[in-house]
UniProtKB/TrEMBL annotation:
Organism field: Absidia glauca (Pin mould)
GO cellular component terms, semicolon-separated: cytosol
Region (Disordered): 143-179
Full protein name: W2 domain-containing protein
The keyword Zinc-finger belongs to this UniProt entry's keyword annotation: no
Superkingdom of origin: Eukaryota
Keyword entries, A-Z: GTP-binding, Initiation factor, Nucleotide-binding, Protein biosynthesis
């Protein structure tokens, strides 16, 4: 996921306060159109604020209703809003409720005192009052953030100390430190020397047994594919095969969402549409209808745009048509309804997918059989979409 400076007015590429670039996903149509921010949790974590704060700020600035589902990590703003517009509004939230008014660093904690919001800066020690005139202030007072744990404070303190290790330097008008770049380079060199020292102490004798050699070959193949595989539209099939083989080896009842995401990132397939097809085909079995709600958060993190949705349906075709034909073919309408209920696939994508058989993921006759079995659901969703347009 691409990262940007927390303060977008700072163009320094070495600026150490980073956050993910905001993503937006428009769902529904007509009066039911809405914009989902799929990575709001990651953005909020980078800002050390609850995800509901920036989401509510969007609602205040846009005059729109919002929905914060912390349990499922789903944050919605009613209406159609593009990512750049929301990113600009987020800049306003950061300026008002994240940055220290004295040093302009984002190392602040919110303290509620006598119904006032104080911004306690861990970088310079200043305490400044937030803008109490903004509508969000009332929400923050009524929903104060959980206090930062001692471990989080230690980590942040250590990060601050690393930058100021050589005496801090003079601050410019923007609040940044003039010697940030020099400090970071020295710290990197020091880290490199420390690593060299550790490497010197390592035992470099190599296990040459047959099993050890086979294991190293597997590791090299994974690393090589991750580093050199081309874009998923232009080849690089091996990394998806490795991802699928790894998923098949896991126990679907015990493997966590975080472990799956970590493996996808290791193989450089996270965020790629073909990974969505492999994921659906490999993490589900004949109990898919019961498994979808449990894996809804994982699916939302992989399936973020229309191309991903189509690939996920392609994975479903393979799962039903090739692996569990006898057990699942008659259950296709119910499976699609589960995907609809957890808002993984948009109405238009379902309808386009069901229009005609395709040989992209399975043989054409298999695709035809799956989509024929899906007809009750497809007719229902098409009628529902027409009624929504009419309303």
């Amino acid at each position: 996921m691409a990262t940007i400076n927390v303060r977008r007015d700072v163009k320094d590429s070495f600026y150490r306060y980073k956050m993910p670039r905001l993503l937006s996903k428009v769902e529904g149509k007509g009066n039911g159109i809405k914009t989902v921010v799929p990575n709001m949790t990651e953005i909020a974590r980078a800002l050390s604020r609850p995800p509901s704060y920036p989401t509510k700020y969007f609602g205040c600035e846009l005059g729109a209703q919002v929905k914060c589902d912390d349990k499922n990590e789903r944050y919605i703003v009613n209406g159609e809003h593009d990512a750049e517009r929301l990113q600009t509004i987020l800049d306003g939230f950061i300026s008002k409720f994240v940055l220290c008014a004295s040093c302009r660093n984002p190392e602040t904690d919110i303290i509620i005192k006598n119904d006032d919001i104080l911004m306690d800066c861990k970088a310079c020690g200043a305490q400044n009052m937030a803008d109490m005139r903004h509508k969000l202030s009332t929400y923050i007072v009524k929903n104060p953030p959980a206090q930062a744990s001692k471990n989080q404070r230690k980590q942040r303190k250590a990060a601050t100390a690393q930058t100021n290790e050589l005496g801090g330097g003079f601050e410019n008008e923007e609040g940044g430190s003039d010697d940030d770049i020099i400090s970071q380079r020295i710290n990197k060199e020091a880290a490199g020397l420390s690593m060299e020292s550790k490497l010197a102490q390592e035992d470099w004798s190599e296990d040459t047994s047959e099993a050890a050699v086979a294991q190293r070959m597997r590791e090299l193949s994974v690393k090589g594919v991750a580093a050199f595989a081309e874009d998923d539209d232009e080849g690089g099939e091996s990394k998806y095969e490795l991802f699928g083989a790894w998923l098949d080896e896991q126990d679907n009842n015990t493997i966590s969402d975080d472990d799956i995401i970590a493996k996808a990132e290791e193989l450089d397939v996270y965020g790629k549409y073909k990974a969505c097809q492999v994921l659906v085909q490999c993490i589900f079995d004949e109990s898919i209808a019961a498994q979808i709600p449990k894996r809804a958060n994982l699916l939302r993190k992989f399936v973020t745009e229309e191309k991903h949705q189509k690939a996920a349906l392609g994975g479903l075709e393979r799962l039903v048509g090739l692996e569990y034909k006898d057990a699942l073919m008659k259950k296709v309408p119910g499976i699609l309804m589960k995907l609809y209920d957890v808002e993984i696939i948009e109405d238009d994508v379902f309808i386009k997918w069901g229009e005609k058989p395709s040989k992209k993921y399975v043989a054409k006759d298999v695709s035809k059989a799956v989509k024929k079995a899906a007809q009750p659901f497809l007719e229902w969703i098409e009628n529902a979409s027409e009624e929504e347009d009419s309303d």
